[in-house]
Amino acid sequence: MRMQEQEQEQEDNFDTFPCDSFLEESIIDYDDEDYEESDSEIVAEMAEIQITETETETSNTSSKELRRARVWKHFEKQTIEEENETTETFILCKICEGHFSAKNSTTTLERHLKSKHPNVYNNLEQEETRTIPWTAETHKEKHKLFVNWIITDQQPFTIVENQSFKKFIASIQPKYKIPSRHTIKDMIMK
């Protein structure tokens, strides 16, 4: 019930803005009969947006999987069969040949790299932060999403001048240049 009330409130807010040309391209049509989005779908949609913002070399893979793959490049699972038909499985560091229990997590292996092989670990960190540069089209798309948020949540245009807000956006995505309040107004009035 609460979700329906929120959708109705957003729908009411949506109808009060005189910016049809902008809205046609960038805002979800809340009047659409097929529009019913659960919280999990909204979270998934936001996760997709986040992935496109950081666009890694393998954008179809989650960051957790990428981290795991990068760490495991330096380790190998080994199994030794002993004479009495018992087997021992362990993890071998390819750099120093250190042995670890097969039950260890990726975090343990990552800690080993950090403490025993700092150069390798630092390269691992750099790989994770390497991103593809933003195009003008990507920046324009982010502007539309930002203006969509301002409109649907009835934020004042001056929000872009708030220092705390600027720091928050910079911490999330340093590449994003926040448009001025005048640019936002112009985008809406187009």
From TrEMBL:
Keywords: Metal-binding, Nucleus, Transcription, Transcription regulation, Zinc, Zinc-finger. The keyword Transcription regulation applies. It holds the Pfam family zf-BED. InterPro entries: ZNF706/At2g23090_sf, Znf_BED, ZnF_BED_domain_contain, Znf_C2H2_sf. It is found in: Nucleus. Its main location: nucleus. GO terms for cellular component: nucleus. Gene3D superfamilies: At2g23090-like. Residues 66-124 form the BED-type domain. GO terms for biological process: post-embryonic development. This is BED-type domain-containing protein. It comes from Rhizophagus irregularis (strain DAOM 181602 / DAOM 197198 / MUCL 43194) (Arbuscular mycorrhizal fungus).
